[in-house]
């Protein structure tokens, strides 16, 4: 299983050039990784790309709730 699929980019209105990623695994305290971009445009484009990729992965794999019930995401 790809451990990076759970990464979600978080942006901050007070610093639009920064994206942060938080990752925790069972038994770990967690890791926070930050990327500081040259421009707000670069950061925004990168985050949009990651968000689209995450949505595609969820759509193709079907998101499952803890009980194993698939969740279907609508585009509207």
UniProtKB/TrEMBL annotation:
Basic and acidic residues bias (residue ranges): 51-60
Disordered: annotated span: 51-76
Gene3D superfamilies: Pleckstrin-homology domain (PH domain)/Phosphotyrosine-binding domain (PTB)
Domain WH1, first and last residues per copy: 1-57
Name by which UniProt lists this protein: WH1 domain-containing protein
Originating species: Caenorhabditis japonica
């Amino acid at each position: 299983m790809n451990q990076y699929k759970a990464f979600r980019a978080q942006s901050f209105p007070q610093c639009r050039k920064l994206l942060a990623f938080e990752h925790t695994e069972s038994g770990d305290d967690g890791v926070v990784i930050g990327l500081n971009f040259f421009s707000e445009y670069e950061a925004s484009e990168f985050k949009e790309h990651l968000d689209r990729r995450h949505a595609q992965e969820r759509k193709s794999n079907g998101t499952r709730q803890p009980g194993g019930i698939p969740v279907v995401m609508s585009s509207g």
